[in-house]
Structures are given as C-alpha cells and as structure tokens.
Amino acid sequence: MLKINNLKASIEGNKILTGINLDVKPGEVHAIMGPNGSGKSTLSSVIAGREEYEVEDGTIDFDGESIMDLSPEERAHKGIFLSFQYPIEIPGVSVSNFLKTSLNESRKAQGLEPMPAGDLLKMMREKMELLEIKKGFLSRSLNQGFSGGEKKRNEIFQMAMLEPKLAILDETDSGLDIDALRIVANGVNKLKSKDNATVLITHYQRLLDYIVPDFVHVLYNGRIVKSGTKDLAHELEEKGYDWIIKEAEQL
Amino acid sequence: MSEEEKILEEVTGADYKYGFTTDIESDTIPKGLNEDVVRLISSKKEEPEWLLNYRLKAFETWKKMEEPDWANIKYNKPNYQDIIYYAAPKQKKKLNSLDELDPEMKKTFDKLGISIDEQKKLAGVAVDFVMDSVSVATSFKDKLGELGIIFCSISEAVKEHPELVKKYIGTVVPTSDNFFSALNSAVFTDGSFCYIPKGVKCPMELSTYFRINQAGTGQFERTLLIADEGSYVSYLEGCTAPMRDENQLHAAVVELIAMDDAEIKYSTVQNWYPGDANGVGGVFNFVTKRGICHNRSKISWTQVETGSAVTWKYPSCILKGDNSIGEFYSVAVTNNYQQADTGTKMIHLGKNSKSTIISKGICAGKSEGSYRGLVKIQKSAENARNFSQCDSLLMGDKCGSHTFPYIEVKNKSAKIEHEATTSKIGEDQIFYCNQRGIGTEEAIALIVNGYCKDVLNQLPMEFAVEAQKLLAISLEGSVG
Description:
Chain A is an alpha/beta fold.
C-alpha cells in the first residue's frame, strides 16, 4: 500500500530524513518509535505532502503509484489520513461543518455527489458513539478551547468519518489520560480492517499495549536503524534508546 | 517567495467576477453641477416646491463646505463638475409583473445570480429594483399594502405620501451634516422609502438591489425608513456594479427612525467594483447612514462590505430614548489596492441605553482597512452600556489594518468594554484543511467564514448564504 524507498528530505537546508525505507501492506499496523528529533513527525508530514519540506531523493508510492507530485489534498483524496500531534484551531468553523466540507470534497474528487444531510448526520452519530463523544460536540468551533484529550478524540472521529486506507497517527497518545487513551485506542482498533493500514508514531510503548503493532521500527537521525516485532517495543521500554543508538553508530 | 506568499498571491489575485454592463438606453443630462442642474433634476422628477427649496438650500450649504480628509484613505478627489447628476433608464412604463421586464435587464440580474423568479418564490422577499436611479419594478406591494406598509421609491413617496417625507427627511442626517450628505441632499435622484405603521410587524424581509449602470454617473441614493411605535422591519440592501475604468462616485444617505418600542434591522451586502488588481478604477463609496432610537427601540446595522475602491462609511445610532439599543455588526474585506475606513458611532443620550459593536476586518493584497468607531456617553445617559469588539485578519504582509476607537464618557455610571485582536491565516490552518481533502481556496473561504460567523449570523438566512459566497468570491483566485 505504502512503499517508501530511500527517502531524503530537508527543511530550510537542514537534513531531517536521511534515507527512509518502509513497506506497509494492507491490514498491517506499524509503529515508528524513536527519541526526540529523530524525524518522526517530519516523516508523517512528508508522506502527507506538506510543502515546506524539500524532498531531495527517494520515492513514495501509494497503491502502486508515485504520490510525489500530488498536493496534500490529492493525497487525502487517495485515502491518506494524518492525525495531527497538535490539531489546529479554526475559530467559528464548527466540527460538523468542517467534517461535511472535508467529506464532500473527497467525494467530489471521486466523482460522487455530496452526502445527503440526513445520512451524514446518521454517520456522525454512529461514529460519535464509537468514540464516546458527547452531544453538542458537533457545534463547537473546531479544536478551539478543546482539552488535549478532546482534540485527539476529534482527530480519530474525523478519521472514522473519512475512512482512510492509510492512517498515520502522530503522537496520538500524548496528552491523553488513561481513560481517553483506552477510548481512542478502542476506536482505532474497531476501525481496523484487512484493507486499511495504520502507522503509529509514538514515543512510548504505552499506546502499543492497546493497539498492538505487527512491526516496530526505530527511527534515529532520519533513518530506520532497527525493525522488529512488538517485542522490540518492550525492549525499548526496559532499556531505553541508548543501546540502539550505540549499535547504529557502530555501523 | 515562500509557499505561503505564493498561495496568498494567487488566492488574492482574483478578478472581479461581476464586470459587465447592461445595454439599456438612458436619459441623461449634461455633466456638471450648478443651481440649474439642481432645478433640472427637481423638475424632471416633477417635485413639489418644498423639495426643490430643500435641494437648493442643501446646494448652497455644500458649496461652502470642504471635502473631508481626516479618514485613513488616499484617493484623487473627484471633479464634481465632471459627473453626470441624472440618469434614468428610458423605459418608464410601470410593470404589472416581472415578465414585462426588459430582457436585457433581466439578464443582468440573472448574471448576478439574483433570479427574480426564485426571489419571488423564496418565502417573503419583496424586491424593489433600482437600476441607476429609478425604480423599475416592485413586487409584493399589494400584500404589504394590506398591512398599511408603504414600500416604494422615494420619488413615488414624494408624490403619494408627501406629508411623511416632508416630516422626516433630513431629521436624522441634516443636510449640513457633512460634505457628502449636503451633496446628496442637493442632487439625490432616487432611493427607497419605507413606512411601517404602529404595531405592525413586517412579515417579510424588505430588500432592494442597487446597481450603478451608467458610465460616469454618480449615484446619490436617498433612503428613508420609518418604523412607527411598536413596529418591526428587517431591511436588506445589496449591490454589485459593472466594471469601469473611471472612478464612480457614490454618496448615499440613509436615515432610519425607530419610534418607541420599534425595531429596525438594516442589513447591507455591498460588492461594488473595487478597481482592478493595479488599483485602477473602482467605486468611491462615501455613505452617511444614521438611525435614531426612541424609547425602548432598537436599531441593528449589519454590513458585509467587499467592494468599492474607497469606502468611507459609519452607520450610526443616536440612542435618544431610554432603554434603547444600538447594534453594529460589520465584515469589511479589502483586497488588491482597496481602502476602507469604516466603523460606527454610538451616541448614548437615553438612560440604560445599550450598544454592541462587532467589527471584523479582512485585509489582503496591498489593501488598507481601518476601523473607526466612536462611543459617546452623554451626561443624560445614566447606566449606559457598550461592548465593542474589533478584530482584524491579515492575509499576506503587504496589507495594513488599523483601529481608531474613540470613547467619550460624560456620565460616571457608564460601563464600556473594548476588545481588539489581530490575526493571520496560518500556513498550519491551511495545511490542516488540505490534509482533510479541502483545497486551499476552499480552505481560505472556510476559515474566513468562520472568522466572520458572529456577523454573518445576524443576516437573514438566505442573505447569509449569499454573503458567504461573496466573501469566497472576493478572496478567490486562480488556484487549481
């Protein structure tokens, strides 16, 4: 589904990604871990097509086609979703209006008519239940005055509505208390299918107790220096990153 | 150029979408202004002597006045001798139905997206067309007539209801009020008149579409709206104008009178030609709008201003009565080389009078937008309240936004609050929308509409939708 080959990217002249290789297949859950500044968030931004980043080398293919020349919205229309580490506030735009616009723009790109209001509302209600979101949430200004937990829940709510093929969750666990983490993880698990894939970007192993990954990758200095199964995450939790960094530097 | 600048450049580089002219024969007089021209206008309109005298007195006053230059705008002052002061479409026959309308004129309205048929079908909208200066068609008149509501052109009102016009004209905006109001009083050719009788709640939105359509014609609209005791009316004016190379002067006067316990809601959607991307051409909009509130009455001004090269406009309320309420909700968009100096005046005279000011400025391109507001609490205004909020949204770094709040308080019991913010549309906001599949143009429209929500919510439903589209068009570019 997602195939990244030797990806190198920089911002304002600083090299952040120095040769990423990653292969994500339908139905899989990948976790990308690594210390601060290793390039985790840059990777997610580059996949989503953020234009401030300069891609210097390498390829990103999605469903067998290169997405390198596509705009962020075109990538979104293809089914790539990014849950933001810091969701952005848009004052005066309600959650429901934003979702309606978002959903219908994607439908338009696929040659579909806008979703009838009744169906849309029904779908919103279903997904809100899944994520234990309270009534009244839909009419609030997008992310404005939301608690950390509400913001993250809202991201997963949007993901549930948009039903992407590939979801990249950037530090979705940060700022969540244990109950909110359980609800969010539960939502992500319920949305998993054999046709879609999830990439979790996280600092901590904690999230991986709730969403169990098929593969764990450790990112350091802009490359993946070690890959393994979920056991690798436990090892990191116990021993920290230092041993991997040493191992990587010896190479 | 950074990515953000590129986006903004493209998005704000939109051409005016409503640039076209209608080919209708006009009856005009030679350009220039002198006493004979004032007399000619009055005689062409078959006016009574008192009105001619009113015009002549105003003309004398105007001659002694100087064009104001305190506003934060720069423009070449019009040559008042180079303007045609009277133009009326030749077709003067009264229409029984809109089907009789000149097909050319109908096409113009269709291009603007104001389908007459649709308007008629839309629940309760009576439209009084003003093309150039003479009203062409009025609908729903019979229905309004049953309730005793008078809604017609001011010329017609002069003929049919002279006692009302004579009693109220110039009482809220005296001819000597300012340079432009004096000019308007001397040469106004048409406009709207509305009277709501005691205790009557007008059952539909009253709406007038203004349009400047004659090359080089200054348009001097005169509007007089009287809501008698305990009555209610919601009134909307909206306008677009065809593309012109030369500047067109517009100096309207609007007077509102809210008697005891009456309520007037006055909404404006203004989209006159702003000039091209280099700042050439465009309408000069120098408007005097003012309302007077008697006891327990309320006047609410809502304006969405996207057009004009230069705007000079301060819809105001004189809160004369005890417990009277004045409100001002404004969205002003400037793009390219547009300049706007707009705001309001709230003059508190009555006890417990209250006023609210919500102003949202949006500046793009190389434009300049200023909010200028006066809150004045007179000695008699015991327990007066005011809340003002002035926000500015900047797009790009070549535009300017300014706020000039004036507060004068002569009664210690007054409570006044003023809040102001300035913000930019962030790259982060746009990327967030992009990532959710929303293109940049659509994203900016979404963000801008969200920012203006408090004002747009004040507009009647169907006009709010129209205004949203207008905001998007005003900031739309060639992206995608």
